[in-house]
Design a protein that fits this description.
The complex is a heterodimer of chains A (108) and B (119).
Chain A (H helix, E strand, L loop, with lengths): L2 E3 L3 E4 L5 E8 L7 E5 L6 E4 L13 E6 L2 E6 L8 E9 L4 E4 L3 E5 L1
Parallel strand pairs in A: 2-10
Antiparallel strand pairs in A: 1-3, 3-7, 4-5, 4-8, 6-7, 8-9, 8-10
Chain B lengths: L2 E5 L2 E3 L5 E8 L8 E6 L5 E7 L6 E3 L7 E6 L4 E6 L8 E9 L4 E5 L3 E5 L2
Parallel strand pairs in B: 2-11
Antiparallel strand pairs in B: 1-3, 3-8, 4-5, 4-9, 5-6, 7-8, 9-10, 9-11
Classes of the chains: A mainly beta (108), B mainly beta (119).
C-alpha cells in the first residue's frame, strides 16, 4: 500500500522560503499533487504532476520530486500562505486516492 | 465554471442512515469520474469513494466499505452517497470532487457538507 508522510508543522518568517516534504512509500513513478487548505474552505490545488502549477497559482509555489521525497516549496512566504498543505497520489489501477497527513504552515 | 454543491448533511444518531447529494453544473457531468472525500474535525483529508463516469466502476475506502454506497444520476447531474450504519467516527465534512483522470488530481471541489454522528 501507499504511504505519504508529511511533517505535522513547518514554521517560516515572512519573506523566507518554506519547504514542505512528502515522504513516498511504494508509489513508484506516480505523480504527486499538492493542495492548500485554509480554515473553513475546501482544498485548493497548488501543484499537480509533481511540479506543474494550475492557472492562477503564484509562481512562488513550486514542486519537485527526487527519489522517495516530494517537496512543495513556497518562496517569499506571505501571511496569506498560512494554511494546511496536503500531498496526494492516485492509484490509477484501483482509482484509490491517498493523502498525506497534512502539514500546518505557520508564518511567524 | 464548474460548480459542485453538496447537501444532505446533518446530525444523526449512531446506527442510522443519511444520504448526501452533490449537484454538478458547468461541466459535462457524464464525462467525469467523481469522488467523495471527507475530513473529520481537526483532521486530515480522507478519500471515501469513487464512481466512474458511467457508474460501471465503484470502490470504497476500507473504513466505509459495506456501509456506504456511491451512485450517480447523469441525467440529473447528481452524485450521491448513501451512508448506512453510521458511526461516531464518520463525523466529518464530506466533499464531492472531480478528478482529472489522466493525472489523478482533484480539479474541482464542492464546499462540503457537515455530517455529525452523535448519540
Amino acid at each position: 500500500s501507499y504511504v505519504l508522510t508529511q511533517p505535522p508543522s513547518v514554521s517560516v518568517a515572512p519573506g523566507q522560503t518554506a519547504r514542505i516534504t512528502c515522504g513516498l512509500t511504494n508509489i513508484g513513478s506516480k505523480s504527486v499533487h499538492w493542495y492548500q487548505q485554509k480554515p473553513g474552505q475546501a482544498p485548493l490545488l497548488v501543484v499537480y504532476d509533481d511540479s506543474d502549477r494550475p492557472a492562477g497559482i503564484p509562481e512562488r509555489f513550486s514542486g519537485s520530486k527526487s527519489g522517495s521525497t516530494a517537496t512543495l516549496t513556497i518562496s517569499r512566504v506571505e501571511a496569506g500562505d498560512e494554511a494546511d498543505y496536503y500531498c496526494q497520489v492516485w492509484d490509477n489501477f484501483s482509482d484509490h486516492v491517498i493523502f498525506g497527513g497534512g502539514t500546518k504552515l505557520t508564518v511567524l | 465554471q464548474v460548480q459542485l454543491v453538496e447537501s444532505g448533511g446533518g446530525v444523526v444518531q449512531p446506527g442510522r442512515s443519511l444520504r448526501l447529494s452533490c449537484a454538478a453544473s458547468g461541466l459535462t457531468f457524464r464525462s467525469y469520474g467523481m469522488h467523495w472525500v471527507r475530513q473529520a474535525p481537526g483532521k486530515g483529508l480522507e478519500w471515501v469513494a469513487f464512481i466512474s463516469n458511467d457508474a460501471s466502476q465503484k470502490d470504497y475506502a476500507d473504513s466505509v466499505r459495506g456501509r456506504f454506497t456511491i451512485s450517480r444520476d447523469n441525467a440529473k447531474n447528481t452524485l450521491s452517497l448513501e451512508m448506512n450504519s453510521l458511526r461516531t467516527e464518520d463525523t466529518a465534512v464530506y466533499y464531492c470532487a472531480k478528478i482529472r483522470r489522466t493525472s489523478g488530481y482533484y480539479e474541482d471541489w464542492g464546499r462540503g457538507t457537515l455530517v455529525i454522528v452523535s448519540p
